[in-house]
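INTERNAL AUDIT FORM
Audit reference: QA-55
Scope: verify that the stored structure record matches its stored sequence.
Auditor: D.O.
Record contents follow.
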Amino acid sequence: MTEQNDDVVNQVEGDAATAVQMRDVRGHVYVNSQVFTSAEPASSPRPGRLTVLAVDDEAPALEEIVHLLRSNPRVGKVDGVSDALTATRYIHEVLRQKEPLDAVFLDIEMPGLNGLDLARMISRFAVPPGLVFVTAWQKHAVEAFELEAVDYLLKPVRTDRLADTVRKLLDRASPHESEPPGDPLIPVERAGVEAFLRLSEVCLAELDGDHARLTTAEGEFSVRVPVSVLTADWAAAGFVRVDERHWVAVEHVENVRLADRTMTVQAAGRSLEVGPEHLREARSLLVRSRRRPERH
């Protein structure tokens, strides 16, 4: 269906039940929105699984994040819409029906209401869903976490980073369901000799290909460990990810510095700057461990 108005031609796909055309409040911008559907069968909510809404005005990006979310076994239902106004209507209707909505994955740069505008609206709900920003730009990270975003993902989204985000959302939705693991033994190697370490002995883990270099008080060791284990199992044992390669044991953090909205963590004799997408979780874990950041 095509409509012409003010010399602007707008193409609206789909039927009247799924498509909406709206003039933006800022002027002659029109928002054409299509509720995302794909060849994949729509999934239904499952116990212990997340219900998610994805919002992105670029169709390939929306299709990609919806596909990645549906591929995660911890996600039960995913819907996608292509603009913030339709997302607002969707969220209000879901909450009015008292249906579950655990998270909203938001692009930031969108016509009309952008992702930050929508996030401010969502944050005013009595029980808001978790906010996850998905963007190509790092420049909005500080503002995103001021809105208490659960995570900040950079495009293109990697499967392991998304798995980390899903874990955070599950912890947020059911904080009492995850029991902390014990202190497992880890088979490691040092100078060609195999040995075992307790996880509690590890101060710092540095990813190096399909191995991780573990730093302890006794020295460095190597272990083959998938990223998924570092981001899920080790995180539950008190490790926090500070950048794309490093995980730090909160109990072994020696010092923390906050300056100009950046955070530097010192552990195992090394100083590591926390990446913007990991800043909120790092601060949260340090608060819970009763460590007070030192300000300069």
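Auditor finding: record pair retrieved intact. The two ends are 59 Å apart (CA to CA).
Action required: none
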